[in-house]
Amino acid sequence: MSPAITPFLSWCLTIAMVLLFAAFALTIVRVLRGPTTADRIIAIDLFGVLAVAFIALYTLYVQQVVFLDAAIALALVAFFGTVAYARFLERRVVDRPEEREAAQKEKEEPHA
């Protein structure tokens, strides 16, 4: 059986959750306003990180370790989503001629 939460810890957890909700709100604004797709993807990734942090705080607050499984699963999904987006950007066809030439030169140069 775990010890009871002290009033100080309870206040700290409450303040941290309120700050996380503020971060959630700002992240939603970034997702909606952009201005680029990359900004939106990074904001969605941040949303996943904030959700994992909130689940971890909630786990401490209710003293139920069961919720950590959900946090780990969410962290893995967010990580794989970020990796998938990075691979998409890497394989994307470059639209500007000068960027296409720079990418072609990079492919031709031998790597150390």
Q: How would you sum up this structure in a few lines?
A:
This protein is mainly α.
What descriptive keywords fit this protein?
112 residues; mainly alpha; Helix Hairpins
Write the layout of secondary structure elements.
Layout: H1 7-33, H2 37-62, H3 67-91, H4 97-108
Please characterize this protein's 3D structure.
The structure is a single chain. Helix content is 80%, strand content 0%. The protein has a single domain (7-108), classed as Helix Hairpins (Orthogonal Bundle), CATH 1.10.287. The mean pLDDT is 86. It is built from 4 helices and no strands.
Number of E-state strands = 0
Largest sheet: none
Beta-strand share of residues: under 5%
Could you estimate the helical fraction of the residues in percent? over 70%
Poorly predicted parts: none
Overall geometry comes to elongated
- Indicate the radius of gyration in whole angstroms: 20 Å
Total discrete domains: 1
Number of helices: 4
